[in-house]
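Standup notes
- DV: blocked on the single-chain target, sequence here:
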Amino acid sequence: MFHSIRKPSSLAVLLAAALLLTAAPGAGSAAAAGRASGGTGAPAGVQAYAATAVPAAPKAQANEPLRIVAVGDSLTAGYELGMNTASVPYGYAERVYEQALYHGRAELKNYGIIALRTPGLGKFLQAAADGKTITAEDVQQNLSTYPLAPETVAKTAALAADLKQAALVTVTIGGNDFTPIFDAIKQGGLTDAELGDQLNAMLDDYMPQLESSLRTILGLNPKATIVFADQYLPVPAPSVINKAITPSQYGVLTAAVDRLKGLDEALAAKLGKEGYDVRAVDVSKPFRGKELTYTYIAKGDIHPNQYGYDLMGRAFADGIWGSYREPAALPAGTPLRVVVNGADLKGGNKPVLKDNATFLPMRDVANALRATLNWEPKTRTATIGSNGKKVAFTIGANTMKVDGRTVPLETPAFLQTSGGTAYTYLPLAALSRGLGYQVEYRKPIATVFINS
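- DV (later): unblocked, structure below
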């Protein structure tokens, strides 16, 4: 999915990390207003606001999946250190998608772009809203040098169509906007007050651009729920080992993160008063003090690792649905979980993986789908009925019947004996799709989701 990205010097990375306020989410984890770590006071003008309440969960249109669109920078893209073009991202957006599947049918379209800055996001979204096709260089200078950026930017028509149909839009943006401050820190001679002033000036420039991007999305789809993240500070606090920044500089930086969090919440509240469902989520506090655990900063990269992306996914889920659902414990010898309409499949027999397909005991799956079941012993044919459809499987046959129509079947039903009893196992994906259900296998959490 991605090529490797060249890294600056380790000191530059630590400093870049210091304000790679790379959008990352998290509800209910606000830092204390104006707090500065290391016992230092916040510079004048740095302030924070109170957290906002989480609104109701977004709703899909009747008989439609919950359509999710993710836009933003490399965090939205799910970039991790060491990724290449063959890598499959598993970032916060993919975790949000999994959480959505617990609630019903869902779809995800990801438009994350590595190295994207806030002005570039604005241009990308505006081109989509205007129905124009632009290039990566039109969006941002040198953006075309990053993997998949040209291909993603070229999809303005698809982006516009997806945003218009989206029930939920997630956004991470901003970390790349703040990198110039690190050069100022490295050059030295900058007082804490001057550093605070520069950060405040950057934030004052950033917020109107962020608001403009959110309003462009709302212009395309005023009914969408938009959830955007504040920024974490992926640089460890100064110590005997870590001397990339001084304690007082660290205090200024954390105060700026707190101020940004407050500004984000104020923007969400402002748009909420206008009748829109826009939410700001926070990861600044969950990441703080755990940067070495949640990022690759020790290896010279500011992006989250899987622990960090998991934290972000949990935070987004908390901000969207008010909770995060943990996958059920996987019993020994069970290859995967099966979740049907949000409920874990229960039964005395385990799922079976055979020929790269998942099979379930006939009666267990019928019960889980709340479907009718008919077994014809003479022909050894099982017929399942649900949603006004009927699907029939004959043991060993390479076809199935869907409402009487013959459909090819790659993995036929079979009998498996356990404890002297023969159980009929049906191919889950074929059955569910024959009944018109959504079937989605999520390998990272070894879970098959079935939603009617």
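- Follow-up: The chain is about 35% helix and 20% strand.
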